[in-house]
Amino acid sequence: MPAVEITIVVDAPARDVYELAKDQERFPAFMPDVESVTIVERHPDRIISRWKTLVEEAPIEWIEEDRFDDTALRVDYKLLEGDLDTFEGTWRFEDGDGRTHVTLFVEYDFGVPTLAELIGPTLHKKVKENAEMMLAALKREAEANRSR
User: Fold this and answer.
1) Segment 123-133 mean pLDDT
2) Strands 86-96 and 74-82, sheet pairing
3) Better pLDDT: 140 or 56
4) Nearest alpha carbon to residue 139 among 16, 53, 4
C-alpha cells in the first residue's frame, strides 16, 4: 500500500503541539485546504470526525476515527467511510529540548487499481504535499501560540 511519512520541527513543547493537533475542529482556521472538521462523537480517548477538504480544488470527504494516547503523545487515525478506500496513519510528537519533532505517517489507497496505475505518482505527490501543508500549518499555529 502506498505511504508517506513527513517530519517537521516545531519550536514549541511537544505537549502543546500534541494538544493543538487533538483540537481538530480548529484546523480549518489555520489549514487552507481543510474546509471543515465536525466532531460526530467524542470519547475520553478518541473521536469520530467528519472531514471536508480540497485537493487541487476537488472536494474530498470522509469520516475517521482518531485514537489519542496522551502518555505517548500519539494520535492514530483510520478511515471509517468516505471517498478513499484506505486512509490511516499516525501523528507522533517527540520532545527535544523544548522543540518538537512531529511526524505524520499516512497510508492510502483509492481502491481503484487502474486509477492507481494511471495517476499513482501524481496521487503520491498530492498526498505528500497535503501532509507537508498540514504540518507546516500546525507549526505556524503552534509557534504563534507560543509567542502570545
Assistant:
1) 86
2) antiparallel
3) 140
4) 16
146 contacts 12 by C-beta, under 8 angstroms? yes
All three cell numbers of 110, joined, read 483509492
Q: Are 125 and 2 in contact (CB under 8 A)?
A: no
What does the pLDDT look like over 26-78, one tens digit per residue?
Answer: 999 999 889 999 999 999 999 999 999 877 777 888 999 999 999 999 999 99
What DSSP assignment string belongs to the chain?
--EEEEEEEESS-HHHHHHHHH-GGGHHHH-TTEEEEEEEEEETTEEEEEEEEEETTEEEEEEEEEEEETTTTEEEEEEEEESSSEEEEEEEEEEETTEEEEEEEEEEE-S-HHHHHHHHHHHHHHHHHHHHHHHHHHHHHHHHHHH-
What is the residue extent of each domain of the chain?
Answer: 3-147
Are 34 and 135 in contact by the 8 Å Cβ rule? The answer is: no
* pLDDT for res 119: 61
Pairing of strands 46-55, 3-10: unpaired
Q: Which CATH number fits domain 3-147: 3.40.50.720, 3.30.530.20, 3.30.1330.10, 3.90.1150.10?
A: 3.30.530.20
